[in-house]
Amino acid sequence: MIDFKGHRIEKAIILTCVRWYLAYPLSYRNLKEMMRERGIEVDHSNIYRWVRKFTPKLEAVFRKGNKRPVGKSWRADETYIKIKGQWRYLYRAVDRDGQTIDFLLTAHRDKQAALRFFRKAIRQHGLPDKVTIDQSGANKSALDALQEETGHAFEIRQSKYLNNLVEQDHRAIKTIIRPMLGFKTFNSAYCTLCGIELMHMIKKRQMTSTEGHILSVAEQFYSLAA
Predict the structure, then answer these.
(1) Model confidence over 78-97: pLDDT tens digits?
(2) What string of H, E and C letters represents the secondary structure of the chain?
(3) Confidence class for position 222, pLDDT limits 50, 70, 90
(4) What is the pLDDT of residues 118-129, one digit of tens each?
(5) Structural domains in the chain plus CATH codes
C-alpha cells in the first residue's frame, strides 16, 4: 500500500493529477488550470513533486505481480530524450504483439548501457528466444556478451525493417513528452518516464485484473495505490 499521509490534498486528487499528466500531452500549468476550473487550488510545483514521488512507487507495484507475461520474441531499440539540453537514451523493447517488455533511461548509448537494459528485462521476464535489433554494433555486442554470461543461446536478428514495431511504439511515449518542454534533471526524467511507460502498458491491457472484473484504464491505475 502506498502511503499518502502528510499531504493536505486528498489522495483521489493527487492520483488524478498524476494520471492525467502521465496519460495525456499536458504541462503542469495545464493541470493547474484544469484543477482550478474544478474549484481545486493546486500549484504546478505540487503536481511536479507528486509525479516524482509516486510514479516510481506505482510502477514498482505494477511490476510486482500485476504485469502480464510477455512473449519470447523481442524487438529492442533506443530513442533520444533531451535532459537539460543534452541527449540521453531511452532503451525500450516490445514483443511481437507490441506488448512492452521493459525500458531503461541511460546517459550513454554503448555496449554497457545496452547490457544493463537487457539484464533488467531478463530479471522481469526471463531469457528470450529471439531478439530483433537494428544495425547497432553496441546492441549486438551486448547480446553476444549476454549469451556468454547466461549460457543461453537465442537468435539475434539485425534488421531495421523488422524493428518497425518498437520504433512505432516510441511515438506513443514521445507524444506525451513533447508538451513537457524538456526535463531539467536525470532523476526527474526517470520518474516521469516510469509513469508514462506505466500508463502506456495499462492502455495496452498489460495489467492483470481481478477475475470476473473488467476495470477501465483509470480504475486499473488507481487500483495500484489501493
Answers:
(1) 999 999 989 999 999 999 99
(2) CCCCCCCCCCHHHHHHHHHHHHHCCCCHHHHHHHHHHCCCCCCHHHHHHHHHHHHHHHHHHHHCCCECCCCCEEEEEEEEEEECCEEEEEEEEEECCCCEEEEEEECCCCHHHHHHHHHHHHHHHCCCCEEEECCCHHHHHHHHHHHHHHCCCCEEEECCCCCHHHHHHHHHHHHHHHHHCCECCHHHHHHHHHHHHHHHHHHCCCECCCCCCCCCHHHHHHHCCC
(3) very high
(4) 999 999 999 999
(5) 73-183 (3.30.420.10)
